[in-house]
Every structure is written in structure tokens, then in C-alpha cells.
Specification:
Length: 147
């Protein structure tokens, strides 16, 4: 079993807000849909989701902390005494889809970077690029015909 705090890059004193932010940042970075569906990104994403689901729920977080002696200041898990297990939720694919994560990220008030580019903006950029290349092609053709 992994150290969920280490996976999310957090300390034992992390708040629920810290856990949520760390999850969002890492989930968007390692989501398989963003990383050409590579096996490595799928495994990393599943680790991140597992860590988030355990630490974001107070009851399971307390159980996890007690199972691994986190509450008493020992940072090494005691694997022999731990009976802590995680299972993914039934609606895993729907809840953790890349589109849903992006939508949540935007909805929570985070702005900046690539998340501000909507699909429509992306499409408009593509059209503008094609028009520019077309115009350059016509200009080149005109110059060649004049010579």
C-alpha cells in the first residue's frame, strides 16, 4: 500500500482544501486522456484517484491514518497490522472523466493556463489558421504568376 500523502505531495496536516487542490492539479496533469492514454499515465492517475478518495473522506482518512500510525507521529506504515483497503467507486469513469475534471476545475474559480481555452475558442483558432494558410498560398500563387 502506498503513502497517499506522498502521492498527492502533502503533509499529514493537509486540510481538505489542500487535498482537493492537489488532486485537481495532479489529476489534470496525469489524466490518461491528456497523455495519449499511456499505461504509465493510467497507473499514475489511478494512484492519484485512490489517494484522493481515501483522504477526501474524513472517516476513511481517519481509518487510514490510524492504520498506518500517521496520527501518532510515526511516518512509516505498519503493513503487517494494516487491514485498510480501497475500492474504486461504481461511477468511476463518469466522475473522473477528463471533461468532468476540466469542468470542475473551471467551476471552482480557477483561471489561467490552458483551461481557459474552450473548445469553441480552439475551433476558431483552427479556422483562423486555415484562412491564414489559404491567404498565404494565394499570395504565393499570385507572386509566381507575376514572374
Amino acid at each position: 500500500m502506498s503513502d497517499y500523502y506522498k502521492i498527492l505531495g502533502l503533509s499529514i496536516n493537509a486540510t481538505q482544501k489542500d487535498i482537493k487542490k492537489a488532486f485537481r492539479d495532479l489529476a489534470l496533469k496525469y489524466h490518461p486522456d491528456k497523455n495519449m492514454n499511456s499505461q504509465e499515465s493510467r497507473e499514475k492517475f489511478m494512484e492519484i484517484v485512490e489517494a484522493y478518495e481515501v483522504l477526501s473522506d474524513e472517516q476513511s482518512k481517519n481509518r487510514y491514518d490510524l492504520s498506518f500510525n500517521k496520527k501518532i507521529g510515526i511516518d512509516k506504515p505498519n503493513f503487517s497490522q494494516s487491514n485498510f483497503r480501497w475500492t474504486p467507486s461504481a461511477d468511476f469513469d463518469r466522475f473522473y472523466s477528463y471533461e468532468n475534471l476540466k469542468r470542475q476545475y473551471r467551476h471552482e474559480g480557477f483561471r489561467g493556463g490552458m483551461w481557459d481555452i474552450t473548445e469553441k475558442s480552439n475551433s476558431d483558432l483552427w479556422k483562423a489558421t486555415m484562412i491564414l494558410f489559404g491567404a498565404l498560398g494565394l499570395l504565393s500563387l499570385f507572386i509566381i504568376m507575376k514572374i
